[in-house]
Input
Amino acid sequence: MLIGSANRASAQESQRPAPTNVEYFQYGVGVALEKLASGGDVCPAHAKTPCILGSGGGLALRMGYRSRGPFYVGGAYEFIRMDSANLLRLAILQQLRAEARYYLDVGNRLTPYAGLGFGAAVYGNEWHASTGGPTVSAGLGLEFQVTQSTVIGGSLNYRGFLLHHFADSTGQARADRYLGFGLAHTIGFELTLELRDPLARW
Output
């Protein structure tokens, strides 16, 4: 009985994730989807042309520092091919964000977290910038530890964009409300694969 109990305890220990007493350089890639929640001032109700900012998908590249505690801080670059209702040949939304996560570590391989981000976004045709401005995001995610050095995850995020005034190819004025800026909102979903490299202790 004692041997059986010891074997079960050993099996349970082997299934638990590695302790978070090591600092990591964490980096990876994500498949990102952006669903337009509201075109807002970028797609004004009185416009005679369709909304130039739709939904789309793309990739996110990310790197940062994972502390021994519940925090991650880092940066991300994301580019999304958006639906522009044929007003742009190849509409690309680019974002460069600083990000932070707070992990609710309960000692399992599956760990939930809350995230915040802020940065800048540009939108235009074929990697050019027709408009740009600050962006903020907030969301929730789950991270599953496959091995000590590999994690996969998913997150759902709200993103707000304050874009500068511009006119599209038809001459329609857009994003011209708040001192020459306009709001737009999206809901983002991302599937991620990230790697961890332990950092040497000082």
In short: Helices lie at 2-15. The first helix runs from residue 2 to 15. The two ends are 45 Å apart (CA to CA). The first strand starts at residue 24 and ends at 38.
